[in-house]
Amino acid sequence: MPHEDGIWGARTRRDNGQSAVLANFKAKGQNAMTHIDAGLAGAQMTLSPEEHRRLRKRYRRRTTLTAYAFLGPNLAAFVVFLLIPGGVALRVHVQDRWRAWPG
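User: That's the sequence. What structure does it adopt?
Assistant: Structure tokens below.
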């Protein structure tokens, strides 16, 4: 082990006792990866097509709402501080020009 002489002794932060588990498997003549793979294979679940569709719709709805939650205040500020004052200024300008029109 690379950090055996460190202040942590045989178990370093990086090791976390994993080498002891692997040594135990090697002593028994077993392969640790077979046990890990078997555990993962049993934990894998398959979803029905209906459940998959439902989860996909839920995910899409959640991401859409999150996007609108971030963009909503920007859109509101755009309308309140740019479009409305710009429209008012344009209307005043057009009315002034209309009044000043000869005829």
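The helical segments are 18-28, 32-43, 49-100.
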